[in-house]
Specification:
Helix content: 25-40%
Distance between the termini: 16 Å
CATH topology: Phosphatase 2c, domain 1
CATH superfamily: PPM-type phosphatase domain
Shape: globular
CATH architecture: 4-Layer Sandwich
CATH class: Alpha Beta
Strand content: 15-25%
Strand order of the largest sheet: 1-2-3-6
Radius of gyration: 17 Å
Length: 206
């Protein structure tokens, strides 16, 4: 999943998705099917996608500086392997708990970690959309890579900040619990009803 954000973001997001998917499909059967190899596969796919987007931005002047966020969820057996760049998010809903599995690469998140503002203040900070890391904006990018266990009844939710800026986590949780299959459409509608000033992407993996 990619989010349109920077100059030429629509092009960047399409290139990122296509190149990352192509890399994974081309290399899946060439690696050992074990945890560290899968983590490397996701990391390399994101780095490859970054190179594709960055080089494209250098070749076309009207795309200069373009970038995007990117999240990958690769599920194999009882684990999800996550690759993450930017401030789009991956959540896991298990039982009565919603847990964010990614950390926002944003200026406001850094302020929270440094203890300069609270999480509540972060929700309304004027610079909450300022990213500290995005795909395609620089020659190299260091993605967050992690593996998490998943259980049969778990639901994974991937979304852009166009959702999380408009709809709080408690509401997201309630909507997914009510009907995970129909949750993306309902959550997009809720975000639009709340203002919908940004691109809204929502995916549920059941």
């Amino acid at each position: 999943m990619a989010w349109v954000g920077y100059n030429g973001g629509e092009v960047a997001s399409r290139l990122a998705i296509e190149s990352a998917r192509s890399y994974i499909e081309s290399n899946f059967n060439l690696i050992e099917h074990e945890k560290e190899a899968f983590l490397d596969l996701i990391k390399n796919a994101i780095e490859y996608a970054n190179t594709v987007v960055y080089e494209k931005s250098k070749k076309e002047k009207d795309l200069e500086g373009m970038g995007t966020t990117l999240d990958i969820c690769f599920i194999y057996n009882n684990k999800v392997y996550i690759g993450h760049v930017g401030d789009s998010r991956v959540y896991r809903i298990r039982g009565e708990v919603i847990r964010k599995l990614t950390k926002d690469h944003s200026y406001v998140q850094q302020l929270v970690e440094d203890g300069k503002i609270t999480r509540e203040e972060a929700n309304h900070h004027p610079k909450k959309n300022m990213l500290t890391k995005a795909l395609g904006c620089t020659e190299y990018v260091e993605p967050d890579i992690r593996a998490r266990n998943i259980e049969k009844q778990d639901v994974l939710l991937m979304c852009s900040d166009g959702l999380t800026n408009m709809v709080d986590e408690e509401t997201i949780f309630k909507v997914v619990k009510e009907n995970a299959e129909k949750a993306p459409e309902k959550l997009v509608n809720l975000a639009n009803d709340a203002g919908g000033y940004d691109n809204i992407t929502v995916i549920t993996i059941i």
